[in-house]
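Table S2 (continued). Query chain:
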Amino acid sequence: MQHERLDDRDIAILATLSREGRIAKTELAARVNLSPTPCWERMKRLEKAGLIRGYRAEVDLDKLGPHVQVFVTVELESHRAESFQLFERTVARMDAVTGCWAIGGGYDYLMQVFAEDIAAFQSLMDGLLESRAGLRRYYSYIVTKPVKTDPPALGLLRG
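Corresponding output:
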């Protein structure tokens, strides 16, 4: 994978946008010490290069209604390529699964699940077990309170 060459201003633009996606272009330009036109051109270049995949709102889920957030470690029955592909296709179709990462270190996947309540979460997991997606076992970790959910500090990723 080829990495885009970024300078300090590019990193500053990306870092600011990752925290404040709706920032006014003139404010963004001022924060990264550029005039608006060059800042806008850099943003467009970063979007075109695929470094900016989109802009999202951070929604306060507590104000929408009751819910439970659960992290789930998953172990598959088989470690054949087809088994991983089947599990990943199955999970990709599940709206309640908002994140899923293949991981090393004993488990095969880490999933992030949002559900209305514990019963809805358990129903989802029962359905996943019955789906023949290859799930051997899973462990659930219910989030009791968020402590930190910041985007990554992009300056640390530059190496």
